[in-house]
Amino acid sequence: MDNALLLDLKYAGRSLWRAKGFAVTVILTFAVCLAANAALFAIVDGVVLRPLPVPEANSILLMSNDYPKAGAADLNNSSPGDYYDRLREMKAFESQALFRQRGQTVEVNGLPQRISGMLVTPSWFHMLRVSPPLGRAFTEEEGESGRDHEVILSYGMWKQLFAGDENALGRDLRVSGQPYTIVGVMPAGFDFIDPDVRMWMPLSFTPQEKTVHHSNNWYHIGRLKPGATMAQAQAQVNALNNENLERFPEFKELLINAGFNTKVKPLQDMLTAGVKRTLYLLWGGAFLVLLISGLNIANLALTRLALRRKEMATRIALGAGRAQVIRQLLVESLGLALLGGVIGIGLGAGLLRGLGATGLKELPRAGEVHIDGTVVVVCLALSVAAGLFVGLFPVAGVSRIEVNDALHEDSRTGTAGKKTRSVRQLLVAAQIGFAFALLVGAALFLTSFRRLLHVDPGFHPEGVVTASVNLPKANYGNDDACRRFVERALPVVRAIPGVTRAGVTNVLPLSTDHSDSVILAEGYQMRPGESIVSPLSLSVTPSYFEAMGISMVRGRSFDERDNESAQGVVIVDERLAQHFWPNGDPVGRRMYLPRDPKNLLKVDEHTRWFTVVGVSRTLRYENLNDSGAAVGAYYFPLAQNPDNYFTFVLKAAGDGDAAVRALRTEIARLDPDLAVFNVHSMAERIDMSLASRRTTMLVANAFGVAALLLAMMGIYGVLAYLVTQRTREMGIRVALGSTRGGILRLVLKEGFALVGAGLLLGLIGAALLQGVVAKEIYGVKPLDPLVLGSVMLVLGMVALAACALPAWRAMRVDPIVALRSE
Questions:
Q1: Residue 16 and residue 11: Cα distance in Å, rounded?
Q2: 764-820: per-residue pLDDT in tens?
Q3: Per-residue buried b or exposed e for 269-279, using 16+ beta carbons within 10 Å of the residue's own CB
């Protein structure tokens, strides 16, 4: 190590040891703020920045069809017809694949267990450039209909089912009632897309299915060729879409009116779309707290420099040189910041564990969030940047020291305080400004969260528990079999002690498994350029609406008359009713599902009609901050539109857990091969839907409190220094007749001038950030007057508290003592 640097380190160590209070304060302040930055950056890095765990993951793109004017949910999906067209026509990709997660039932230790599986085209593993180390990947032939009964297991599933026995290859495994041959085992730790996926099965289509367009049920990804770009892929898919519009002119007007387009984007964007902006906002908040703490420490450093002016001047006079003094000050600052950074990294790991209890595990790729080498490097780099930032202020002070003046001035009241006062006041004003912006953000998140808690979801969650069942097609191969199972199960479920209502639905509010489909009203005349709408489609049994507490606005709910042999009926929600019958009563009107894709409005003798028997309230299906489906929803009786995947909804008067245990028992009696899964109360579902917002609110408010405390320290520090530096002036004022009230007003005027300047800066910052925050809040405007006024009031009260002690000291100045001491 260079001798000069070693001497600087030794000197810095001795100097800081003499000022232990200052050193400890700075280290701990840096540590806490850098801990927040380490934890937030670890989350951002693990969820957003780190490439997916496959070779050259950044070259994998997602292609998703979008119909914004039709009100269809943006699910990032494509259709088989698109996939095969793009395989032939798009030259930017070296390989492409379709996939979709689907729950499967597998017998584990003699009991049916629901696990997460994934259907993939055989090209999947080749495209990912990942192969099973044991066994093999799928062949192209296994992607043909009827030859798709092979399965590849995850490493954990292989261990659980076969205890790591390599002889498992070639054995049969019953998956959802059908035999599958085990052909491979993936490597340990492979968790591409979703770590919960435990098996992969080949995806196959019939020749007819390969030509179907706009039936968007699959995720479509492709790996770019070397040298190809995302812009080229987007241009190629746009050209192909335009060609298809001409190939199928019967769809052209319909698709144009719906705003049809295909988005090409990095696959990782699909995983992080709902959280990326929020995570960056939170990390920005952590950085602002670090900046505020840096301003506060800079103020402390300036105070310490004022007390060391004679020391600095003496060293310069003795030949030390300003460069050497400046270097030593920077070494002190960097040393404190790096120590704080090292401690902060350790605290950040603990903070990550604490955040895990607030909903961190609900984030995509949450299992990859940890403190690693990248996080350590970034945190240490922030430490160095913070140390240099803080060190620049005393360095600037040293560069302005006049040696003769410093040696002749009194150390307690030297002119340095007058020269640096404006700088210190500016630093505090900046602190208050940043604190104000952070507090406004925290208050907005808190207000938004509180309003979401009071949103009426359209149903009554109290006492409602839900549990799902998936009937395997091997045993329930037609609609009648599914219908009969529900007819046998519901009376048994309704007889469970404590259950007052019970129904079945194929789609639950606040779940992710939604389906939308076009439905039209008899006689509805579309305006030129108007798009066909695609509302949410649901199938429910009688008593579903009663069990969920969903009220009917008009007409009636379904009842036992609405069976498979009865006239087709439908219930629409308020939003869909408003779309089709804005000025009339929907009850008694007729609707139909289009049969001819070439002419959706075509009605003939084969058209199946459904009579509207009721209008229900509109629910919050997607999440609480959205009014459900963009164009509404409609319900069919499950008896008339059966589904093999459905959820029991139980209204329990007593113990909901006991009702679910009884439900499991009854389902096992009806069919011991069925697994009951996805068991949650509706209150839990609401809570889960708010998990990420709760975490955002808690973290933002923690940052706001930290910023408030730092601003308070800054105001107090400047005013205390002001009182010390102006002791003689105040003594003279008192001697000349000034009252204690006058001295009090003098100090408070200084304090509130700082607060006023800071609030002005904060308002400007809040105005600049309103566009960023607007998309993350609900029910409150970014510049809500009540929020701004409340934050101003809190900051004013904090400023008054910070001014209190210095003002009290100023009022007690004894003029005789003050003048004698000077």
A1: 9
A2: 988 988 888 888 888 899 999 999 999 999 888 888 887 777 777 666 666 665 555
A3: ebbbeebbebb
pLDDT digits (tens, 9 = 90+) for 97-111: 999 999 899 988 778
How many Å apart are CA 764 and CA 752, to the nearest integer? Answer: 18
Taking alpha carbons only, the member of 269, 457, 282, 287 closest to residue 360 is 282
Closest Cα to residue 526, out of 66, 67, 69?
69
Structural contact between residues 31 and 347, judged by C-beta atoms closer than 8 angstroms: yes
Tokens of 466: 């839900």
Q: Are 44 and 185 in contact (CB under 8 A)?
A: no
| Tokens of residue 306, six digits | 């004022």
Q: Which helix (H) or strand (E) is 181 found in, with range? A: strand 178-185
Cα 103–Cα 104–Cα 108 angle in degrees, nearest 5: 130
How large is the C-alpha radius of gyration of the chain? Answer: 34
Is the sign of the CA dihedral 678, 681, 684, 688 positive or negative? positive
- Distance in angstroms between the alpha carbons of the first and the last residue of the chain: 47
Phi, psi of 96 (to 5 degrees): -140, 160
Name the residue with tokens 């404006």: 422
CB of 340 closer than 8 Å to CB of 26: yes
Dihedral of CA atoms 267, 268, 272, 274 in degrees, nearest 10, equals -20
Q: Determine whether 608 is exposed, middle or buried from the number of CB atoms within 10 Å of its CB (0-12, 13-18, 19+).
A: exposed
pLDDT in tens, 80-129: 999 999 999 999 999 999 999 998 999 887 788 999 999 999 999 999 99
Distance between CA atoms of residues 549 and 520, nearest Å: 27
Nearest to 370 by CA among 351, 346, 389, 349: 349
Return d(Cα 567, Cα 491) in angstroms, integer.
24
- Residues facing residue 153 across a β-bridge: 185, 199
Please give the full DSSP string across 631-672, using - where no structure is assigned.
T-EEEEETTTS--SEEEEEEEESS-HHHHHHHHHHHHHHH-T
565 phi and psi, to 5 degrees?
-95, -5
Q: Angle 113-689-630 (CA atoms, 0-180°, nearest 5)?
A: 110
Query: How many whole angstroms separate alpha carbon 153 and alpha carbon 106?
Result: 12
What is the C-alpha separation between 220 and 224, in angstroms, rounded? 13
Scanning the structure block, which residue is given the tokens 């509805």? 524
Residues 6 or more apart from 565 whose CB is under 8 A from it?
none
Residue 473 corresponds to which tokens in the numbers above?
């097609």
